[in-house]
Amino acid sequence: MSVSMRLSRGGSKKRPYYRIVVSNSRSPRDGKYLEQIGTYNPLLAKDDENRVRLTEDRARYWLGVGAQPTDRVARMLDKAGIKERAATSNPQKGEPGQKAKDRAEERASKLAEAEEAKRAAAEEAAAAPVEEETAVEEASAGDEAPAEADADAADAQEAAIDEAVTDGVVAEEVNEATPNSDAGDTPSEVEGESAQAPAEG
Fold first, then answer.
1. pTM for this one?
2. Best label site of 85, 167, 168, 200, fewest CB within 10 Å?
3. pLDDT at 86 over 50
């Protein structure tokens, strides 16, 4: 049986309180233990003497029979001067974990996609005014063509009116020049009749 010195959690929700216990390494964290050798209250200030309380002689006894302290308990024992803890170096300290790296890569890829989409939208927006100008020019050219057609139609209509007026004037002149059949006899006939009238009398 391997024996460990570790923390066993107590207290209430959001107000933890730990017992420093010696227990079988296979037993549950908050389950049965062999002996309690101290307490740890993380809610107290770091300089408070009641933050960590250890029974020194019992801790030394269990260390002497082979109990292995966890890293946190080893720090407490080192601070109390019971067992010196070898300094450890963690070259990866402060580095994010694998999941955090994956999330960062995912965020970076999403940002890159968003920037690419913005760039494409900006290029489309830059190309759109040129197309609009071309469409406006084509539309204005199309408007000019009907305007020219309207001008030609107006000229043709004026020409037709001029012709009609000219035809009307010519017709009036012709009517004036030709004698009216209802107007009576010619002047020569009238003179002949006037000459014959005294002779008969």
1. 0.44
2. 200
3. yes
Render pLDDT for 10-31 as a digit per residue (tens, 0 to 9): 888 999 999 999 988 888 888 8
Looking at the chain, the number of H-run helices and the number of E-run strands are 4, 5
User: Residue ranges per domain, the chain?
Assistant: 3-80
Return the structure tokens found at 174. 């012709």
User: DSSP readout, 96-159?
Assistant: --HHHHHHHHHHHHHHHHHHHHHHHHHHHHHHHHHHHHHHHHHHHHHHHHHHHHHHHHHHHHHH
Distance, in Å, from the CA atom of 144 to the CA atom of 152, rounded to the nearest integer, reads 12
Backbone angles phi, psi at 45, to 5 degrees: -65, 155
3-80: CATH homologous superfamily? Ribosomal protein S16 (3.30.1320.10)
Hey, what are 32's tokens? Answer: 């049965």
Backbone angles phi, psi at 177, to 5 degrees: -70, -35
Distance, CA of 144 to CA of 155 (rounded, Å): 16
H or E segment and range at residue 195 = helix 187-200
